[in-house]
Design a protein that fits this description.
Helix 2 links the parallel strand 1 and strand 2. The strands form 2 sheets. The protein has a 6-stranded parallel β-sheet with strand order 2-1-3-4-5-11, with helices on both faces. The protein has a 6-stranded mixed β-sheet with strand order 7-6-8-9-10-12, with helices on both faces. The radius of gyration is 24 Å and the shape is globular. By secondary structure, the chain is of the alpha/beta class. It has 10 helices and 12 strands.
């Protein structure tokens, strides 16, 4: 009798354990589709488009979702791509870049049951079905400015922006702040390519700047940056990248990069959506405090400079 009771008890415990384990199993996300609508420059722009897609790929592996991206080649593509994303029955649509704001506002009204998010958005009032994902580019630019001024001699630096949108302006202002904190005599020359894809324009502007005795240029222009890096290599000058780590492109030229972790923002946004925690009508800001922005440590930076910047980051985190 005792033996039978023991067997029954054992079976009961196993059954309870099996049910508990099955309840802990992650839900099946295989039918969830997240679509990214990219800005101009393509998915391999070595900038925020590429980073956003990297974040989506990580989420796909981690959570078993389906992902897709739609590339925009002209401004007209923003609207049609957002409409296509809705037609694909996307569960979440992420617009990548400030330039998509107007098209997204329109889509949010026309498709109130769809869930949207946007990287680098700016709104007077955020639609209830849109989550705005922002980054403190000013902090990232500041770190890059500190690194540049601590590493290089001279008082002349340059900044080339793609288009004068808030993210680009934030990089510029932060970069200048970091430069001047180290050396108040530094002068920053600023020009815009009016494009996020015209490498030839970036090359032309950079050539002029380097010929005017500027030794280092920060370039926040997506595909424009490639032209800047090319001239820097030819002339033996320096450049500073943005968005993602760029030193691998030209290790002897790219001093550092002002990094904003768009991949982390996209992955976290997808996770929040899957957990039913993504709140529309709000802005999420990634900064130094929550490890959303940083700078690239390269072999061109001394240990002393890296220690100096890391201490600055600690100070900012503690505020």
């Amino acid at each position: 009798m005792r033996k039978k009771l023991s067997i029954i008890l054992f079976i009961l415990i196993i059954s309870i354990f099996t049910v508990a384990c099955s309840n802990k199993k992650e839900k099946d996300n295989s039918n969830v589709l997240v679509t990214l609508v990219l800005d101009k420059g393509g998915v391999n722009d070595e900038s925020f488009n590429q980073l956003a897609w990297e974040g989506a790929k990580k989420a796909s592996i981690e959570y078993g979702i389906k992902i897709k991206y739609l590339e925009s080649n002209t401004d007209a593509d923003y609207k049609s791509n957002l409409e296509q994303a809705v037609d694909l029955d996307s569960n979440l649509i992420i617009a990548v870049g400030f330039n998509l704001i107007e098209a997204l506002k329109e889509a949010a009204i026309y498709y109130p049951k769809s869930s949207f998010a946007i990287i680098d958005g700016s709104f007077d009032k955020i639609p209830e079905n849109v989550t705005n994902i922002n980054f403190d580019e000013g902090e990232a630019g500041y770190l890059a400015g500190l690194a540049s001024a601590k590493t290089l001699d001279g008082n002349k630096f340059g900044f080339i922006g793609g288009i004068s949108v808030p993210a680009v302006e934030n990089y510029k202002e932060g970069f200048e702040k970091g430069l001047l904190e180290v050396n108040p005599n530094i002068e920053l020359s600023v020009q815009y390519a009016n494009s996020f894809s015209d490498a030839a324009k970036g090359k032309a502007i950079a050539t002029q700047m380097y010929n005017n005795d500027i030794n280092c240029i920060m370039s926040a222009g997506g595909g424009v940056n490639n032209g800047v890096y090319e001239v820097a290599r030819e002339k033996g000058k320096y450049a500073v990248g943005v968005d993602m780590a760029q030193n691998y492109i030209s290790p002897k030229v790219i001093l550092t990069s002002a990094i904003k972790k768009v991949d982390v923002g996209v992955e976290n946004t997808i996770k929040s959506f899957l957990d039913n925690n993504l709140e529309g009508g709000t802005t999420i800001i990634y900064s130094i405090k929550n490890d959303g922005v940083t700078y690239e440590k390269t072999d061109l930076l001394s240990d002393e400079t890296i220690k100096f910047i890391d201490n600055k980051m600690k100070e900012l985190k503690s505020k």
